[in-house]
Amino acid sequence: METGDGRPTPTEAAEALAAIEQTQATLHRTPSPKWYPPSLAAMVGGLMLAQLLPGIAAPLAAIALAAGTGALIGRRIDRTGIRPRITEDRRKVTWLITGVWAALLITVGVLAHFAGLWWLWLVAAPVAAIGALLAGRRLW
C-alpha cells in the first residue's frame, strides 16, 4: 500500500529492489548462444589469415571481417534481447585479452613484413582463434 503522498511504503520499496536485483542476477547468468564463441573465434582467426592475401585484398578482407565482428555482436544482442553485463573483473580481463591479441597482431605483422616470415600468420591465426574461443566460452 502506498503512503498518502504517492510514495511506496518501505516494505514495497524493499520488495521492488529485491525484484530488480533478482532480474539483474538472472540477466548476468544468461549464457551466450552456443554459436557465438566459435563465430567470434573464426572472425579473429580469419582476420589474421586475411593478411596473407595479396595486395589490396588483405585490408579489404580485414575491413570486412571487422564489420562482420560488429554484426556478430549486434546479432547476439538482437537475438538474446540483452546486452552482456560486464563486471569490472570481466572488463579488465577483456582488455588484457584484447591487448595480447593486438600485440600478437602487430608483432607478427612486423615480422612478416620486414623479416619475410609470412608463415607466422599460419601459426598466429589458430593461436588467436583458440584464445578467442576459450575466452568467449569463459567470459561471454
What is the molecular shape? Answer: elongated
Helix content: over 70%
Mean pLDDT over all positions: 82
SS elements, strand count: 0
How large is the share of residues in beta strands?
under 5%
Counting H and I runs of at least 4 residues, what is the number of helices? Answer: 5
Number of domains: 1
Gyration radius, to the nearest Å?
Answer: 22 Å
**Uncertain parts:** none
Q: What profile does the largest beta sheet have?
A: none
Structural class call reads mainly alpha
Amino-to-carboxy terminus distance: 41 Å
- Can you write the helix and strand succession as a string? HHHHH
Transmembrane segments: 40-73, 93-112, 118-136
Keywords: Membrane, Transmembrane, Transmembrane helix
Verbal overview:
The chain has 140 residues and is mostly helical. It has one domain (33-139). It has helices at residues 10-29, 36-49, 57-80, 88-114, 120-139. The chain starts with 9 loop residues before the first helix and ends with a helix. The model has no long low-confidence stretch (mean pLDDT 82).
